[in-house]
Design goal:
The protein is mainly alpha-helical and 99 residues long. Helices cover 71% and strands 0% of the residues. Helix 1 packs antiparallel against helix 4 and helix 3 packs antiparallel against helix 4. The longest helix has 29 residues. The chain is elongated, with a radius of gyration of 14 Å. It starts with a helix and ends with a helix.
Length: 99
């Protein structure tokens, strides 16, 4: 069921954003999960646009860092890309399925 898949990817996103201390992004993911539980999918378009490639998610990529931290920064940016791509793809599947 795509709704369960959507809840799972949003839960993973919320955990990631919590770890990175991006509380607004964490709250949006958790709020979306609550909406799914209430069968309210009004959030889909907003989050789809937010997670779209070259959209707001790009603002979270770390570009200014100490060269000594390059390995850690690359790891965090790769995790962000994976989370964003996964959320976007599931939102896209939901949109395709439900018009």
């Amino acid at each position: 069921m795509i709704e369960e898949e959507l809840k799972n990817v949003l839960k993973n996103a919320a955990e990631y954003f919590s770890n990175r201390e991006y509380s607004i992004w964490e709250k949006e993911a958790l709020d979306a999960i609550e909406c799914i539980n209430k069968e309210d999918f009004s959030f889909v378009e907003k989050l789809w646009l937010k997670y779209a490639p070259t959209c707001e998610i790009d603002d979270l990529i770390i570009t200014n860092y100490d060269p000594d931290e390059e390995e850690k920064v690359n790891e965090l940016n790769a995790q962000l890309a994976e989370i964003a791509n996964t959320v976007f793809n599931v939102l896209d599947k939901y949109k395709d399925k439900n018009g």
